[in-house]
């Protein structure tokens, strides 16, 4: 049959991070002992109090359509959180809940971007930003951040790319894939440049990893640096990573009410409300005890320390120590040019393929995130797996000619 798909489908590619995880899973299903560093979600279970809230919602018959942009109870819990943690005040009309932060970001792209618009995306980037911009007809403009700056965008780099066509700047901190995060002072400088160069630019601030932060640091939202910056910021967040709730699909944005209303209109003709039961669970996540989050972050911090030290002890590998999220983004370019079985490793794809096929270790090649020198390793997996995987990587690199 000759299927003629819409052109837009050919403009984007399937998420490469999901495809490597799928390949590793398929190998595991065949009985291969693969160590997976591909996970984009915490390996901890959703806390019991949150599960109980969902069970309660089902028992009470809270199983019907809700208001399209989410129930007031959840909007209020989000508003309370923003005020308590960042001193940011929002009205219910400035909040919309969607089916995960990815859906929130999609709605933002559809509500805001047009043909001819430019969207500034610092690289390495989370794979979804460029494709969503392209789907909405906009042009992604990349800033290739430097390893020596811990992959953080510098004010002068922003200054260079912002022009009258720039519709938005996407910031993600702590970052997927690098784990880099910004201090308040750094965010102030970025915001100053953005507003000076083009006061009509929107700042899309993806803060889904805000709670997964180490070394005693405290997450600061760019929206909190100045009231004028808050007006221009769309603050995106979700329960997905913080509460190990990736499957529940609850994310949201706080920001300009006209944009929120437009997103709500789009949502009303696509998914309607996010799942009623998951919304009740998200209320409990935000308002209930937070001790499980702290336990999870403590475990992640121990794993980060271990993985960074081990990677840096391998000749040819360089890894900066990130302050947040659950990823490391080591530079493996020191092994490029070496070979195995007569095959030369020229780039991150070759290296990831070598590790998966020959050494049974799954990592995500950096090229997927816009940096071919590096690869992403998620440490959302047990310490035992991390040790086993690193032993294999160390040996794999030693065996290269
Ligand atoms: C930076 C970033 N933003 C957003 C998301 C999507 O989150 P959600 O599962 O809530 O859609 C992810 C998930 O990997 C992410 O890494």
What would you say this structure looks like, in words?
The chain has 401 residues and is α/β, with parallel strands linked by helices. Helix 6 links the parallel strand 3 and strand 4 (139-144). The model has no long low-confidence stretch (mean pLDDT 96). The protein contains 14 helices and 14 strands. It starts with 6 loop residues before the first helix and ends with a helix. It is globular. It has helices spanning 7-11, 16-29, 48-59, 72-86, 101-112, 128-135, 155-161, 184-197, 227-232, 257-268, 276-287, 291-312, 348-359, 383-398, and strands at 35-36, 95-98, 118-123, 139-144, 166-172, 202-206, 233-238, 251-254, 327-328, 339-340, 343-344, 361-362, 364-365, 375-378. Helix 4 runs parallel beside helix 11 and helix 5 (101-112) runs parallel beside helix 6 (128-135). The chain has a seven-stranded mixed β-sheet with strand order 2-8-7-6-5-3-4, with helices on both faces. The protein binds pyridoxal-5'-phosphate.
Summed up, what is this model?
The protein is α/β, with parallel strands linked by helices and 401 residues long. The chain has helices at residues 7-11, 16-29, 48-59, 72-86, 101-112, 128-135, 155-161, 184-197, 227-232, 257-268, 276-287, 291-312, 348-359, 383-398; strands at 35-36, 95-98, 118-123, 139-144, 166-172, 202-206, 233-238, 251-254, 327-328, 339-340, 343-344, 361-362, 364-365, 375-378.
């Amino acid at each position: 049959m000759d299927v003629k798909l819409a052109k837009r489908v050919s403009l984007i590619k399937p998420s490469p991070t999901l495809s490597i995880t799928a390949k590793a899973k398929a190998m595991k299903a065949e009985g291969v002992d693969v160590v997976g560093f591909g996970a984009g979600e915490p390996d901890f279970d959703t806390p019991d109090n949150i599960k109980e809230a969902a069970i309660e919602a089902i028992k009470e018959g809270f199983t019907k359509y809700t208001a399209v942009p989410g129930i007031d109870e959840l909007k209020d819990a989000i508003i309370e959180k923003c005020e308590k943690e960042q001193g940011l005040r929002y009205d219910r009309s400035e909040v919309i809940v969607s089916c995960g932060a990815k859906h929130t970001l999609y709605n933002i792209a559809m509500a805001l971007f047009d043909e001819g618009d430019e969207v500034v995306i610092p690289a390495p980037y989370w794979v979804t930003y460029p494709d969503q911009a392209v789907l909405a007809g906009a042009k992604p403009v990349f800033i290739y951040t430097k390893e020596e700056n811990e992959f953080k965008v510098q004010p002068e780099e922003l200054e260079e790319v912002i022009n009258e066509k720039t519709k938005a700047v996407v910031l993600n901190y702590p970052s997927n894939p690098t784990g880099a995060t910004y201090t308040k002072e750094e965010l102030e400088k970025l915001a100053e440049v953005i507003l000076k160069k083009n006061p009509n630019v929107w700042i899309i601030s993806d803060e889904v990893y805000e709670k997964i932060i180490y070394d005693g640091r405290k997450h600061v939202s760019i929206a909190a640096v100045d009231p004028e910056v808050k007006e221009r910021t769309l603050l995106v967040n979700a329960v997905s990573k913080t509460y190990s709730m990736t499957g529940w699909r609850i994310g949201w944005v706080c920001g300009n009410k006209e944009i929120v209303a437009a997103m709500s209109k789009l949502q009303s003709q696509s998914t309607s409300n996010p799942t009623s039961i998951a919304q009740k669970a998200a209320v409990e996540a935000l308002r209930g005890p937070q001790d499980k989050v702290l336990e999870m972050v403590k475990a992640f911090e121990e794993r980060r320390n271990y993985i960074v030290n081990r990677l840096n002890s391998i000749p040819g590998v360089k890894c900066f120590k990130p302050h947040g999220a659950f990823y490391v983004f080591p530079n493996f370019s020191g092994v490029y040019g070496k070979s195995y079985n007569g095959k030369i490793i020229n780039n991150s794809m070759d290296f990831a393929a070598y590790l998966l096929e020959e050494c049974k270790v799954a990592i995500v090649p950096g090229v997927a995130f816009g940096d071919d020198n590096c690869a992403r390793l998620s440490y959302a997996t047990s310490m035992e797996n991390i040790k086993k995987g690193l032993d294999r990587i160390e040996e794999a690199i030693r065996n290269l000619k």
